[in-house]
């Protein structure tokens, strides 16, 4: 029986990177390729048009609030009928940490000073916990893995491209990624990335494929999330 991972992410390029990272990590640990499936929960792809729904941290929050704990359990993590498997065995929820300070302030969470890269990840987890389990008297249930990307999922790509980058989570990945591929820049005074699923799939293959374990060793929040995913998976 397949192990099904539901993915909740900010955008479609994040889904591209996260799916491939989780796949490489689990298959490297012995899970057969045919035993692993993914459900893209956010953003969603329309089955008719093929278009993807909107992304961004606001849409991650909206998804969490649209599926509070009880509904999330019934909709994704429990079988609808006897003998029918649940839609997901595990839900992985991603959020970038690069703009976590204003998000945390809006949620009434304190921001550490100084805000180290590691503290950014801890704060991002706290925000996700607030969204997923808004009732502070009820602890979060299992079968969820929180995935703070410090600073963003692109951090993992640049870490794969530069094995000498000792602390990738402390670096801004945008200029580093543009240095790798100038065509990714939108040409603005403060350059932003021109993103697409195809381009990000290529970036993964060129810079990150085969190096997930090494990158995770330098990105502690990714390492922690992958460890949780391994604990949930039916590994040999």
Q: Biggest sheet: strands, sense, closure? A: 4 strands, parallel
Give the overall shape.
globular
Task: Round the Cα radius of gyration to an integer and report it.
Answer: 18 Å
Mean pLDDT, all residues? 93
Number of helices: 10
> Largest beta sheet: what is the strand line-up?
2-1-3-4
Approximate strand percentage: 5-15%
End-to-end Cα distance, whole Å, is 14 Å
Number of domains: 1
Q: Uncertain runs with pLDDT below 50, 5 residues or more?
A: none
Strand tally is 4
Q: What series of H and E elements makes up the topology? A: EHEHHEHHEHHHHH
Structural class: alpha/beta
Helical amount among residues, as a percent range?
A: 40-55%
Description:
This protein is 45% helix and 11% strand. The chain has one domain. Strand 1 (3-8), helix 1 (12-28) and strand 2 form a beta-alpha-beta unit. It starts with a strand and ends with a helix. It is built from ten helices and four strands. By secondary structure, the chain is α/β, with parallel strands linked by helices. The chain has helices at residues 12-28, 57-66, 69-77, 100-106, 117-132, 153-161, 173-180, 197-207, 212-218, 220-232; strands at residues 3-8, 36-42, 90-96, 144-149.
């Amino acid at each position: 029986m397949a192990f099904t991972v539901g993915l909740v992410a900010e955008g479609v390029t994040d889904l591209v990177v996260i799916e491939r990272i989780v796949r490489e990590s689990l298959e490297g640990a012995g899970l057969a390729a045919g035993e692993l499936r993914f459900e893209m929960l956010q953003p969603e792809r329309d089955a008719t048009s093929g278009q993807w729904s909107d992304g961004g941290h606001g849409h991650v929050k909206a998804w969490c609030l649209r599926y509070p704990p009880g509904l999330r359990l019934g909709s994704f993590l429990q079988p609808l009928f006897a003998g029918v498997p649940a839609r997901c065995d595990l839900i992985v929820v991603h959020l970038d940490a690069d703009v976590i300070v204003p998000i945390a302030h809006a949620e009434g969470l304190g921001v550490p000073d100084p805000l180290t890269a590691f503290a950014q990840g801890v704060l991002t987890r706290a925000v996700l916990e607030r969204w997923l389990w808004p009732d502070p008297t009820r602890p979060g249930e299992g079968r969820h893995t929180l995935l703070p990307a410090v600073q963003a999922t692109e951090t993992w790509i640049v870490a794969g491209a530069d094995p000498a980058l000792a602390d990738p989570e402390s670096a801004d990945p945008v200029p580093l990624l543009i240095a790798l591929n100038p065509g990714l820049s939108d040409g603005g005074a403060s350059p932003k990335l021109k993103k697409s699923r195809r381009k990000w799939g290529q970036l993964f293959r060129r810079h990150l494929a085969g190096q997930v374990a090494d990158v995770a060793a330098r990105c502690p929040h990714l390492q922690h999330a992958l460890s949780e995913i391994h604990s949930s998976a039916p590994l040999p």
